[in-house]
Amino acid sequence: MTKNIILVGVGGQGTILASKLLTTGLMEAGFDVKMSEIHGMSQRGGSVSSQVRYGKCVHSPVIEMGTADILVAFEKMEALRYTKYLKEDGKIVVNKFKVDPMPVLIGGAEYLEKEIDEEFEKLNADVIDAANKAVELGNAKVMNIILLGSLVKSMQLEHIDWENIIRENVKPKFIDINIKAFNEGMKLISKESLQEN
To answer: Which residues form the Pyruvate/ketoisovalerate oxidoreductase catalytic domain (predicted)?
Structure first.
């Protein structure tokens, strides 16, 4: 059975790197994997999304609305843009992180943080603070690897050798911190959450 994963964020958050590590790990585990990326104005904090499909035989990289098993959002508002892709019992992992889009920055719109948070409660989303956890580890840029760890735990893909995937795909001086970040991300998903889903 094919599984569908959507990762969304804004430019500069490392969404695509996380997707590529995920795809590499799934392929090395023997799955047929298809990945597609959509970059908005990614250099300017625009929307970035990536779709990853894996299973025994996957024909298309495109995830249709209402069929995603999990949505992993690197930024809060981006999550809400993509909830329509989730299947009825799909999971949501949301980074407790806010990036003001251009309409908000120029005063043409408001970032409705309270309403967004209330929506996540209704959707029973796993809201994790990957940004602060990355800072605690000593490098804000590993936020994406923390989210990758949370995704792996949520999808119960821990049997794949992710440590080796990180070693082979990250610059040597960043390997240790990325492995730590990945493990911290897995810890942020509770057993209760896995049972609920």
So the answer is: 11-186
Q: Whole-prediction pTM value?
A: 0.90
Helix (H, G, I), strand (E, B) or coil at 123: coil
Count of CB atoms situated within 10 Å of the CB of 192: 8
Q: 148-191 pLDDT, tens per residue?
A: 999 999 999 999 999 999 999 999 999 999 999 999 999 999 76
CATH 3.40.920.10 correct for 3-196 = yes
Please check whether residue 80 is in contact with residue 92, taking contact to mean a CB–CB distance below 8 angstroms: no
Burial tier of 138 (Cβ tally within 10 Å: 0-12, 13-18, 19+): exposed
Q: Which of 1-5, 47-51, 114-118, 168-172 has the lowest mean pLDDT?
A: 114-118
What residue ranges do the domains of the chain occupy?
3-196
